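To whoever is on call:

I kicked off a structure prediction for a single chain this morning and the downstream step that reads the tokens threw a length-mismatch warning. I double-checked the sequence; it's 336 residues and nothing unusual in it as far as I can see. Pasting both halves so you can look.
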Amino acid sequence: MNGETPPAERALAGQVAVVAGATRGAGRGIARALGEAGATVYCTGRSVAGHPSPYGRPETIEQTAQMIQAAGGAAVAARVDHTVEAEVDGLFERVEAEQGRVDVLVNCIAGEDPLMGEWASFWDTKLDNGDAVFRQCLLSHLITAKHAARRMIRAKRGLIVEVTEGDMLASGGNPMAQCVKTALRQFVLGMAAELEAHGVAALAITPGFLRSESMLEHFGVTEATWRDGGAKDSNFLESESPLFVGRAIAALAADPNVLARSGELVSSWQCGREYGFDDYDGRRPDWGRLAVDFSTLPPAIMDVLRTGTGMQLRWLETVLRRTREWYAKFPNNGPQ
């Protein structure tokens, strides 16, 4: 990505970030953006030189660290299987020993796991690998957040970010993918409530239409020619590089009032509006304001999306009413 437009200041200088799942896609972009903002970034994952991804992809955590270093930042590549609790605990022991602190954890583990890639009705979904999906894509996040939170609680500061998909109640994909993405959002709510008294914030974030390595391959383009993908799907013209969601997280981490946002589900484009940063090419993608072109979707899928969204609205309205009634029963409540 030549001709990049970096932020004006290194607002995270002196801070230490761990990006779990920094090998590719959003995780790589997030690691690069945190390094760009001045943080020392530990890039973790399973894919290292000589031991490629189980997904059959070529990217490695060493490459991500080298990108940060080439841009003038500080980065360490650390191979970790985030489903193995002893390895995760060892990671944070190493970070504390080498840096004396951990300020930011971003969980972006297994976001593009092929086991979640199948699109099918729940009655046709293959469930042979269901236990592996939940271990790799959900339990890994819980394990990693657990061991980061213990260190942050002692320091009485820190930020934990869960990367999910979508800024509404439900997510697309097969039932396993839906369960994982929805569970991550709920996990943030639970974490945030417990962590607030310790000065530690927890947020969930979604990117927009992300130009990951695999998405570029799907459209048959490169990062240099990505606009050509608009001929296949005009929505792709509002897509964002992985660096954009990374800059959103860097802006949140630099916000002195981030604790007041703890528990929120935010988006890269919402943060772009609020904090005023751009993508590397000077654009400010805004998926939320796009008049989405649904013409490429089959009518049957459109019917399911329309029906499901209407059900979500009714569900949320009912839950909001019940939650307000429940909240009103607590003594000494502040305004909501």
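Update from on-call: the warning came from a stale cache, not from the record. Cleared it. Sanity check on the structure: The domain at 16-292 is CATH 3.40.50.720 (Rossmann fold).
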